[in-house]
Amino acid sequence: MGPDRKPGPTVLADHAAPGALREPGPRTGGREGAGLTTDRGQEGTVVLDDLRAAIGRYVVLPSEEALSAVTLWVAASHIQPALQHAPRLAVVGPTKGCGKSRVLDVLHETVHQPMMTVNTSPAVVFRVIGKNPPTLLVDEADTIFGPKAGDKEDLRSLLNAGHQRNRPAWRISGPEHKPTAFPTFAMAALAGIGDLPDTIMDRAVVLRMQKRKPGERIAPFRSRYSVPELNALRDRLTAWLAPLRSTAGGLVPRMPVEDRAADTWEPLVIVADLAGGHWPSRARAACLAMTRNEVVQDEQTTLKTRLLRDIRRVFEQQGDIGALRSHDLLAALVQDAEAPWPEYGTKGLNAYHLANLLRDFGISPANHRFENGRQAKAYARNQFLDAWARYCPDPAPPAPAAHEAALARRAQGKPPISPSGTPPIGPPGGFAGPRRTR
Question: How far apart are CA 438 and CA 436, in angstroms?
Fold first, then answer.
């Protein structure tokens, strides 16, 4: 599988039950799931349990697996100098008010050496990452990757490169303008509205946050008592894991997934194996559940892109009219036997399905008055223009082939022009040879 291909949660055939003892080998650093020692293992189990309970008091996460994943991600930040990969934590939600910033508040008080970045200069981030890098906490990440990103492209490149060790960014620096390698390796949590770019999501443990339901309650986050409680947990994590960094660096745990998903989740599983008890099985269950969920999300994203393309085709067939009745649009979509819409759901794509699939693009039906004076629920074409441009742009017209351009010039009696812009040197009479006299 190539490095840019989306990893699926492939279960490894040799994945044994957590807690099994193994001889050290090329795929494992020794005992897995039993904890490093009895004392250290019990200490790790207790502190992870306490941290998980504390995080669950302040935020409502999408699942129990997500709560375990956040707990392990926080703990992994305390051994990141020993890691080969620095997993991202993507905290995303469809709207504001889903608890994304509150997650960052909790992380800020528990991770190793936090650095909150809302509108930080990339030059600052380049210079603070070193041998003992901070844990970057990036709020409003959608402003870095969205259409308003502007001059933040350097920060975006840093976040992409920093997932793997030994991927420095080279810049001209200093009064002598010498090429300088800046380290990029650092764990990072990024919170924003909507999905982040694939290059980030593919390297991240993804938390898909939602608004709390009426019955879901959390403890208020107050600095005077919340911060000391969380800081105490951070100090316990440091006391437990700092002496184990060299040990963690030599562990290669068996993973339930492969490729980039394994790179991303390995630090979390290492922490779980160091703790022992129920954490090795809990970590691997969270890994499988959450990577499978992302595969489903990818399929949904692909499906939504297909829907946008098919709707554009329907509008084109109708002469790009200003609006289409919901009923007419649905009828045109389900008539395509090669599309997934006739078999979507239990009885094919309906109005509810259509509105739900288009909601993330900010597209919804509205009452529209047509030429005959009647009103009906309809989709306006101008609602789709932005989504079409972003997710399924028209392919650029192909440039004329070089030999076609040369033939055209010859037809006009002009010699072909070389890439340098000067006529090529050739035999008398041109490349076809001297002309025959009649």
Answer: 6
